[in-house]
Amino acid sequence: MLQQYRWSFILLGWFFIIFPALALGLTLMPIIPAMQEWDTITFSYVVYKVQYLSIGIGIGLMLIGIINAWPTLRWWWRTLIVLLIIIAGGMHYLSRTEASAEVMFNEPESVRRVQLDPSSAMSDTTVYLWVYLNGQAAGYPLDLVAHHHKIHDTVGGVPVLVTYCTMCHTGRVYSPLIDGKRETFRLVGANHFNAIFEDVSTGSWWYQATGECVVGPLSGKVFSDIPFIQGTVSEMQAITRARSVSAFVPDASTADKYDWSRGFAQRVGDTTQTLGKRSLVIGIDINGDSRAYPLHYLVTRSTDSLITDTINATTIVFQRPTSFTSPVTVFRDSLSSGVVIQSYREYWHSWKHFHPTTTTFKSP
Predict the structure, then answer these.
(1) DSSP labels for 284-299?
(2) Looking at residue 196, what DSSP letter applies?
(3) What Rg, from alpha-carbon coordinates, does the chain have?
(4) What is the distance between the alpha carbons of residues 279 and 298, in angstroms, rounded to a whole number?
(5) Residue 97 in contact with residue 108, Cβ under 8 Å?
(6) Is 153 left (phi over 0), alpha (psi -120 to 50) or beta?
(7) Which residues pair with 231 in a beta bridge?
(8) Nearest alpha-carbon partner for 357 in 307, 287, 297
(9) How far apart are CA 336 and CA 343, in angstroms?
(10) Does residue 163 contact residue 145 with C-beta atoms inside 8 Å?
(11) How many Å apart are CA 6 and CA 10, to the nearest integer?
């Protein structure tokens, strides 16, 4: 009987071996971009958790088939079996190296910041994600964060998780404390064109854009937000007047791996008048009430020098950007209030997906 079904065992076993690498590559990486729009995160999570069981079953089935088939096979059939094994091994090698999000966007081996003199850095045009806590301002060059996707650090004695998703073109800063314990995260891929992080302790998966855990033992929990400013040294100083200012610098493990992301802070997406998937918007969410301010509208069509609006009974105001790369800082009530309302620069497809009830702004 085993002789009769030997090729069935070989091919079925081969499928079980390659299935995890193939399925996770297609669902967690933008190999076929359309698949990113499917809600596959639960499927991917299950496959990820049972991948070694699948591989083990596959190896067992292949061995049964090969042991029963090999003595009677001609050389070309033996060559085919060897090729199948090489292909399977190659797929798993790639899925853990060049095709792995964690390897492509490597974690810094050491997190180091150097002190800056704000007065001498006012002409610096580098765009940073700034975290200002307990009198300390820490800047993370956006191009560098775009490469790493996440940086674990401590600012003013407070643990922070600085993140950026290149497919959403948006940054977030969160507290990595989960139930009072500092957690470590790794990048596993993306769904809905948004980065997915896995916590080391429970293996749960979290969306970068919302800070929400969507699958795993911690499902339903949400990161605590930490305020941040996206802009240059001078723009940060105008808001915080920080005396202690430092900037994150790449370590030896990063070297020139992030060359592809140089200039990322200045990318402007789709600048046509229509609101397309890659059109940049300024997103604001106040207690669940969200609104998107399309940059193409603000820059090219609005004639107001100040943009004033009301979201969830809260008055917000900001200076109209004059270019697609101009920073935007949103204040409560007035520009002189000093109370900053958190805003996000983000692709429309991401903002709309994670804020399905969002409205869009147009001047009255």
Answers:
(1) EEETTEEEEEEHHHHH
(2) E
(3) 24
(4) 12
(5) no
(6) beta
(7) 128
(8) 287
(9) 17
(10) yes
(11) 6
Q: What is the pLDDT of residues 43-93, one digit of tens each?
A: 999 999 999 999 999 999 999 999 998 988 899 999 999 999 999 999 999
**Residue with structure tokens 């402007």?**
268
Q: In angstroms, rounded to a whole number, what is the distance separating the alpha carbons of residues 100 and 297?
A: 38
Distances (CA, A) of 81 to 19, 74, 296: 17, 11, 56
How confident is the model over 166-208, as pLDDT tens digits? 999 999 999 999 999 999 999 999 999 999 999 999 999 999 9
Tokens of 51: 């991948």
- List strand residue ranges (DSSP E) for 200-351, in order: 205-207, 213-215, 224-225, 229-231, 244-249, 280-286, 289-294, 306-311, 314-319, 330-332, 340-341, 344-347
Domain boundaries, the chain: 6-99, 112-264, 268-360
The DSSP code for 212 is B
Please, are residues 226 and 132 in contact by the beta-carbon 8 Å criterion?
no
> Residue ranges of the alpha helices (H) in the chain?
6-28, 41-69, 75-96, 101-104, 142-148, 233-240, 295-300, 348-354
Rounded Cα distance between 183 and 326, Å, is 34
Q: Is 356 exposed, middle or buried (0-12, 13-18, 19+ CB in 10 A)?
A: exposed
* 162 close to 153: Cβ distance less than 8 angstroms: yes
Assigned token pair, 74 = 């001609």
Q: Taking the model in full, what pTM does it have?
A: 0.92
In the block, residue with structure tokens 């990048």? 187
Q: 């943009």: which residue's tokens?
A: 307
Q: Which amino acid is at 102?
A: E
The Cα 347–Cα 270 span in angstroms is 9
Task: Measure the CA–CA gap between 199 and 312, rounded to whole angstroms.
Answer: 33
What is the number of residues in the chain? 364
What's the CA gap between 49 and 69, in Å, rounded? Answer: 32
Is the pLDDT at 2 greater than 70? The verdict is: no
Query: Token digits for 347?
Result: 């692709």
